[in-house]
Specification:
eight-stranded antiparallel β-sheet, globular, two-stranded antiparallel ribbon, mainly beta
């Protein structure tokens, strides 16, 4: 079997090089977001690292192709619409179905950081709903 070689330099994202405040209005307070993979670079797939201070919770939202959260540190909460809040800890992974209404954030007395992975559709990976 013939091997193919790529002449492209591998894309390496250096930690902390793209940290920015979250967009206004998507949570009850601003948090830090670091884009790891942009949808235009990878066929619509996006990934980001988020760091939230205690008590910061996103608004209800959906993702057209679902979402995966992998917890890096701290203690967080995830809530599916109509269901109970579930505690999340470092190493936990939770997935949300396409268009499933949910929210997530830091527990009241704990920082919380995670990586989120989601795919875009028609240029958008998320639809923000009511507060």
């Amino acid at each position: 079997m013939a091997q193919t070689t790529s002449t492209q330099t591998p894309a390496i994202h250096r930690a902390g090089t793209n940290m920015r405040p979250s967009p206004d209005g998507i949570a009850n307070a601003s948090f830090l977001v670091e884009s790891l993979v942009e949808g235009s670079e990878n066929g619509g797939l996006t990934a980001m690292r988020c760091a939230l201070e205690p008590g910061v919770m996103t608004r209800w939202h959906t993702h057209p192709h679902g979402q995966i959260l992998y917890v890096l540190s701290g203690i967080g909460l995830a809530e599916r619409f109509g269901g109970p809040a579930e505690e999340l800890r470092a190493g936990d992974c939770i997935s949300f179905a396409p268009n499933e209404r949910h929210r997530h954030g830091a527990a009241p007395e704990h920082d919380f950081s995670y990586i989120s992975i989601q795919a875009a559709q028609d240029g958008s990976a998320v639809t923000w709903l009511e507060e």
